[in-house]
Design brief:
- Helix 7 runs parallel beside helix 9.
- The chain contains ten helices and eleven strands.
- The chain is globular.
- It has a single domain, classed as Spore Coat Polysaccharide Biosynthesis Protein SpsA, Chain A (Alpha-Beta Complex).
- The chain is 34% helix and 23% strand.
- The strands form two sheets. Strands 3, 4, 5, 6, 7, 8, 9, 10 and 11 form a nine-stranded mixed beta sheet that branches. A two-stranded antiparallel sheet has the order 1-2.
- The longest helix has 21 residues.
- By secondary structure, the chain is an alpha/beta fold.
Amino acid sequence: MNILLEGGTRLQRGPKRNEPGMPLISIITAALNVASFLPDTIKSIREQNYPNIEWVIIDGGSTDETLDLLKANEDIIDYWLSEPDGGIYDAWNKGVRLASGDWVAFLGAGDSYLPDAVQSYADFIYQFGENELPEYISSRVNIVSDGQVVRTIGQPWIWKDFCKYMTVAHAGSFHHRSLFELYGLYDTAYRICGDYEMLLRPRKNLRAAFMNKVTVNMILEGESIRNRRVFDETLRAKVSTGGRGELACRFEKAAAIAKWKVRKLLGYWR
């Protein structure tokens, strides 16, 4: 059923719910003028063999052909809306509020799940008892440029490492709904590393698990790759949310910038 919201925004609803042994998995995609990237993401959702997926797309008011693509693929999109927003974390917050699933994942426009990715996550989740469920699960992610894998990222979540830098791959992460209920939504004051800041909130108490499998091909795009502001935001998050000392974090910032420059020199980042 399509619903017309104020301002001409459209919302597509689907009759999906959490089932015993088959949790509803909500995938949220933020979009803004991504018509050239979105087809690969759409294809990857179509190729998933897990039957209980809810796809939520939050568009920031695209003026290219993005909305045409959404309308043409409403058979696999459960909710979508298009309206101005305050950036990616504002869009993600809207998506979390709309999502119905026990588990929430974020897939970038242009990024692609491997064909068995969501089923692999569901199988991984199934091994935990009801009282043993993690709040957060991560996997490994391929970084792709011009169709070629540049490198693979994503390590197990360990607090002593995570409090220093983003060791996990957000594109390959699943968040239990309880995580947002306990610690809140993303802080829109962050423009680049709000995902890192959010996961710092539980500190060492985060119940995390790691699936040692590549689940996503992530394209070399995004502010966290191109913009040096990410280092300032990371410093702020580690001190204000992670409870770290500023001096140690400044040393870590200098080391991270040096590594970033080397990767640019070697062609890892554009």
